[in-house]
Amino acid sequence: MRFKLMALAAAVSFAVPAIAQTPSDAATPAPKKEKKTCRRYAVTGSIIGTRAECHTQAEWAAIDAANARNVDDTLGSARPGKTLPN
Question: What is this structure's pTM?
């Protein structure tokens, strides 16, 4: 008798989520994952060491833009006749 009650309780607990799911929940597609692109970099101080960084295209664009700003700021401050910002 006790086993039958446990089996019934288990069956009901597994069936409730399936009944509660609405058709609109099942029909919504999962969001598409963006493809990641990996770049390999040489590790400073190592002859054979490399490191890989993986990001999406949008993340790489932001990283490249930040790097370009840093280079421009660094080289721009070294140009003759250019004053440093206060």
Answer: 0.51
